[in-house]
Amino acid sequence: MSKDEVILLDFWGSPFAMRVKIALAEKGVEYESREEHDLLGKKSELLLKSNPIYKKVPVFIHNGKVVCESVIILNYIEETWPSPSLLPACPYGRSQARFWSDFIDKKVFEGGSKIWNSKGEAQVEAVKEFIGIVKVLEGALGDKDFFGGDSFGFIDVVAIPLTSWFYAYEQCGGFKLEDDCPKITAWMNRCMQKETVAKVIPDPTKVYELVCMLKKMFGID
Fold it and tell me: How far apart are CA 116 and CA 216, in angstroms?
């Protein structure tokens, strides 16, 4: 176990903070979680000081050194605590893991957000777009148990926290992802069998309540 000072500025509903918690659990690194409320517009002085550019979680503080942005944090964790490795051993495998992590980062959360913050025809189109994005991921997964093969790895750590918002997307958009993407649904269930994942991922109904609150805040209802 790590004896270093490891602090995570966290928010329970942030899938990006969840990534960091899962990676640390996989590595067996002890850390202190400090709950923020930045999705609700409340930001601590430490958050503002530590991440003055984006002013959002997650913020990772290791022995006083600050690292921001979740995938950058994951790479920092991988290099600082290399065993057990989340990335493949070969350079090509690592490049593929980083490619798909980048795709997930750019497409999934933003695509899902379009569903809950739109109405009418725009929402119908957002649902179609989101299902298309997940289908691309399903193609990358193929018939493997996890994105990297037989074992849970880097891409899975990047992707699985985002699924905690899928129930909210389904409720807002009136669809069932399993109908179009059964392999991704099966992968989600496999990931949730892991203790490192299950203890981090919040109840989907709680996330849906958060989304409903955000909709009201932004006047979308």
Answer: 11
Q: How far apart are CA 124 and CA 118, in angstroms?
A: 9
DSSP state of 97: H
Q: How many CB atoms lie within 10 A of CB 93?
A: 15
Q: What domains does the chain contain, in order, with CATH numbers?
A: 6-80 (3.40.30.10), 91-217 (1.20.1050.10)
Q: Are 23 and 217 in contact (CB under 8 A)?
A: no
Report whether the peptide linkage leading into residue 58 is cis, meaning its omega lies within 30 degrees of zero. Answer: yes
- Long-range contact pairs involving 61-65 (C-beta distance under 8 Å, separation at least 24): 61/5, 61/6, 61/7, 61/8, 61/9, 62/4, 62/5, 62/6, 62/7, 63/4, 63/5, 64/5
Give the length of the chain: 221
Write out pLDDT tens, residues 191-215.
999 999 999 999 999 999 999 999 9
In 10 A of CB 213, how many CB atoms? 12
Contacts of 75 (CB under 8 A, 6+ apart): none
- On whether the pTM is more than 0.85, the answer is yes
Residue 35: helix, strand or coil by DSSP?
A: strand
Q: What CA–CA distance (Å, rounded) separates 137 from 149?
A: 14
